[in-house]
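> call design_seq(struct)
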């Protein structure tokens, strides 16, 4: 009997965790409501991607503001979600328009579509860790950047 109660509790926790992640994506990127970060992230949240790490909710907000300023008319569609205990994997499709400066790259006015893969870990109903991989090269190509081979010195 106890096992089935524990299983139901785990299922309920996973359902709540999935709803929280869906809520964050919708509020943050579709509605542009940055207040959702205070609601759903732990104060000491850690965000990691292959080329950056930020620690704490204020650094996370600054990262969001940088991308939000560069890409308007954003929409995120959740394509896949897998939940296991306190971890949630999502595959999403971002669609947006490059309307502002992005780390020295001027606005191109071009539409950008890119997929992102994220694994979040939650504690006590808050995101404490987010690991993200997105198609940064594809994004750069879509806004007009070109990839060239380095010149070699003989």
């Amino acid at each position: 009997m106890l096992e089935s109660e524990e299983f139901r509790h785990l299922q309920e926790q996973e359902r709540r965790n999935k709803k929280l992640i869906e809520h964050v994506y919708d509020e943050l990127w579709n509605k542009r409501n940055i207040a959702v970060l205070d609601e759903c992230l732990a104060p000491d949240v850690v965000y990691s991607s292959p080329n950056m790490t930020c620690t704490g909710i204020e650094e996370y907000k600054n990262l969001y503001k940088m991308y939000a300023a560069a890409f308007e008319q954003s929409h995120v569609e959740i394509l896949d979600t897998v939940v296991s205990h306190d971890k949630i994997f999502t595959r999403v499709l971002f669609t947006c328009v490059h309307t502002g400066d992005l780390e020295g790259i001027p606005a191109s006015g071009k539409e950008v579509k890119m997929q992102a893969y994220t694994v979040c870990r939650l504690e006590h109903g808050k995101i404490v860790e987010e690991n993200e991989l997105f198609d940064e090269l594809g994004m750069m190509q879509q806004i007009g950047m070109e990839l060239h081979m380095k010149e070699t010195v003989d």
